[in-house]
Amino acid sequence: MIPIKSSMKVLLAGGSGLIGTALGRALAGAGHPTRRLVRRPPSAAGEFQWDPAGRRMDPAALVGIDAVVNLSGENIGAGRWTAARCDRIFRSRVDATRTLVDAIQQAKARPSVFVCASATGYYGDRGDEILTEKSALGQGFLPGVCLAWETHAGGAAAAGVRTALLRFGVVVAREGGALARMIPVFRLGLGGRLGSGCQWMPWIGSDDVVRAIMHVLAGPRCEGPYNVTSPRPVTNAEFTRALASALGRRARLPVPVWALRLALGRMADEALLASTRATPDRLSREGFVFKHPAIENAISHALQRRAV
Ligand SMILES: NC(=O)c1ccc[n+]([C@@H]2O[C@H](COP(=O)([O-])OP(=O)(O)OC[C@H]3O[C@@H](n4cnc5c(N)ncnc54)[C@H](OP(=O)(O)O)[C@@H]3O)[C@@H](O)[C@H]2O)c1
Fold first, then answer.
1. By C-alpha distance, which of 218, 242, 245 is closest to 170?
2. In angstroms, what is the span from residue 301 Cα to ligand 1's centroid?
3. Are the CB atoms for 196 and 248 separated by under 8 Å?
4. Average pLDDT estimate for 71-86
5. What is this structure's pTM?
6. Please, which pLDDT band fits residue 308 given cuts at 50, 70 and 90?
7. How many structural domains compose the chain?
8. Best mutation site among 47, 70, 72, 172 for ligand 1, i.e. most ligand atoms within 8 A of its Cβ?
9. Is 18 in the pocket of ligand 1 (CB under 6 A)?
10. CB of 233 closer than 8 Å to CB of 278
């Protein structure tokens, strides 16, 4: 991991979310001052208001900022993908990214780096194919969202700002996201693989996701797409076994595909049944050492953390 050498002033968008909260804490702990963009009226020091849907942002937020990290977007896993929800998932990412990029382009002094979230959903459903950052875009709704997100982020690169696009896998954290939704079900002994369970599931430990963002912030040559995933992707069946075992339960009840489709609509096929064997080719080649490369360790570590 490349260390951030001197103090870096970072502006976070989507800083209240799962990744943003952990990143903000880690940056503060390492002595890097942070500011947050908030959609409500600011209520604390370091908060600046923006309205990404209306493409408005307080320009003062960027003054003196070295790095901007964009983690904002309507939560993808929070419910059934209705047409209205899909629209919010797409628009929230595009609008937030365009608002930030416009502000960066208009700033008198631009930040030196823009880090923008994306997702391994970029690659879509690809069976057993090993997917690196050089692999082609997949087909479907999520690849379309990621393409639009990354394309708009590219406006910062066009303005001469080093821009990194982080294609996150599923973050294994107790505080939120997929694992937090699965734990209660598994605790009741009702967990099971999804469909055949053969689909590859890219994932990343909660400490490593923050460490990877810090690495990219620090590295003067870190730009373009990065798969932020463990070097050891697992199938859904392997993930299911690891979670059940960590909770001391058995996972005997596979969830049938028809039930997933009935409950979740197209989210079932695109987010839960799609097979995406993404590998962190660039991070590995840059010498990034993962703290939790194995799913068993990452899950145990997540479960040991105090729930917040
Ligand atoms: N966690 C994962 O497993 C994972 C995997 C792949 C990709 N990602 C992507 O990485 C980014 C950060 O992930 P996360 O897990 O931290 O997400 P999260 O917990 O859902 O937080 C996202 C943040 O975005 C802001 N937000 C929510 N709805 C919004 C809307 N309609 N318009 C604009 N902003 C909105 C909120 O922050 P404010 O209220 O402070 O504005 C929220 O805290 C997301 O874009 C996510 O899609 C995450």
1. 242
2. 22
3. no
4. 92
5. 0.96
6. very low
7. 1
8. 72
9. yes
10. yes
